[in-house]
Design brief:
The chain is an alpha/beta fold. It contains 15 helices and 15 strands. The radius of gyration is 21 Å and the shape is globular. Bound molecules: 3-[(4S)-2,5-dioxoimidazolidin-4-yl]propanoic acid (DI6) and fe (iii) ion (FE).
Length: 401
């Protein structure tokens, strides 16, 4: 159905940065954008429907490019411990942290995981999110990683949402492999990843490169396997210390390297050359009360694309609002509201390998957009969460929130 959407302004985010058309019109057809431009240039078209957006500001549908939205249980008890001064690393060393979510996730059925994840994902959707990435990584064995990835696929089937599923089997060492990290990496490479990929459950491969997780050498073995299977990679890097995981990611043309508080200027240069997106996660920075800022000036100077995401997970970022992350990106990391908006649209799409189809409002791209009743685009980064009045369009059809 051809639809004309008008009486609006559009932040198109074309060409990878903030750009706006005032008093614009959009024509959608068969789920795609057929035309977009100033309303004055709108030629008369045969349209089945014309929609008056009431002066709204239209942005691309928001993209949350880094979440761990599928998990069992929650860790509010650990939050209380950390408020008493116990560190994230100490809690992990005592068998808490990721390991405690692994126990709860293994104990949960696929239906239970689906039901709890759906609620969290719907909270993100109420904030204008139309595309989301979901990582596995709390199963840590074939059956349980499969269970998580199947939930990610089912969310895409049952909700008006695009979902990319990332295999994060190399998130932590499962108890069965205590003291045998190399053996676990070999098990992922030889058994888990080939099986999960063959079942069509994996869009990308991720790992946690950190002293308390996996070394660069172990991550590299996984990346080599991913390349062999034709799967793109991404990496949790430089969150708590500097191991130059982000440079390693760049050497493997990773879609993104994520967190990055401890990255160096040389890492930024390597990422810029490779086109690897820097995904910043201010929710985790805030929730862990970190003080080391990602090197914003170096990222900007070298032209690294910067995305922002929720990192929605039970341990370090129980964040249910991507717009709140826009605010935190500005307040904590000194991004401009325009950079932050690019970070949850055009650059987030690139971080998921969806840059050709999503993330900006241009002819031929998927017609996913949000019409916000706001005065200026900066308002999206200004309000601290909350439910802003809006209309959400997915593949050219308005969805109810
Ligand atoms: N970094 C994170 O922030 C999450 N995973 C990771 O590698 C934390 C996951 C958790 O604590 O459950
Ligand atoms: Fe994460």
């Amino acid at each position: 159905m051809r639809t004309v959407w008008q009486h609006c302004h559009v932040a198109t985010m074309a060409e990878g940065r903030y750009s706006a058309i005032e008093d614009a019109a959009i024509i959608t057809n068969a789920g795609l954008i057929e035309w977009i431009g100033p309303r004055a240039e709108l030629a008369s078209v045969e349209a089945e429907r014309t929609v008056d957006l009431g002066g709204a500001w239209v942005t691309p549908g928001l993209i949350d490019c880094h979440t761990h939205a599928v998990f069992g249980g929650n860790r509010s008890g650990e939050f209380e411990q950390r408020l008493q001064g116990v560190s994230y690393a100490e809690i992990a060393a005592q068998g808490g942290g990721i390991a405690s979510t692994v126990r709860a996730t293994r104990a949960a059925s696929e239906d239970e995981l689906f039901a709890s994840a759906r609620q969290r994902v719907q909270a993100l959707m109420r904030d204008g999110v139309t595309t989301i990435e979901i990582k596995s990584g709390y199963g840590l064995d074939l059956a349980n990683e499969r269970k998580m990835l199947r939930v990610a696929r089912r969310l895409a089937d049952e909700l008006p949402l695009a979902v990319r599923a990332t295999c994060l089997a190399a998130h932590a060492l499962p108890p069965e492999y205590a003291g045998r990290a190399d053996d676990y990496i070999a098990h992922i490479c030889d058994e888990m990843l080939p099986a999960l990929a063959a079942e069509g459950l994996v869009d990308a491969v991720d790992a946690f490169c950190e002293h308390l997780a996996f070394s660069p050498a172990q991550v590299e073995r996984l990346f080599i396997k991913a390349r062999e299977l034709g799967l793109p990679v991404k990496l949790h890097a430089e969150q708590l210390s500097s191991l130059h995981g982000s440079s390693l990611a760049a050497r493997y043309q990773a879609l993104s390297a994520d967190h990055l508080e401890f990255m160096t200027e040389d890492d930024a240069i390597a990422m810029a050359k490779a086109g690897t997106v820097a995904v910043l996660l201010p929710g985790a920075f805030y929730f862990l009360r970190e003080t080391q800022l990602p090197p914003m000036d170096a990222l900007r100077r070298h032209g690294v694309k910067i995305a922002l995401a929720s990192d929605l997970n039970p341990g370090t970022s129980p964040g249910l609002s991507l717009r709140l992350m826009l605010n935190m990106g500005c307040t904590c990391f000194r991004m401009t509201p325009e950079e932050a908006l690019a970070g949850v649209t055009v650059h987030a799409a690139t971080a998921l390998g969806l840059g050709d189809s999503h993330g900006s409002l241009e002819v031929g791209k998927v017609a996913d957009f949000v019409a916000w009743q706001i005065e200026r685009p900066a308002d999206l980064a200004y309000w601290l969460g909350g439910d802003l009045p809006k209309r959400v369009v997915r593949k050219g059809h308005e969805i109810s929130n």
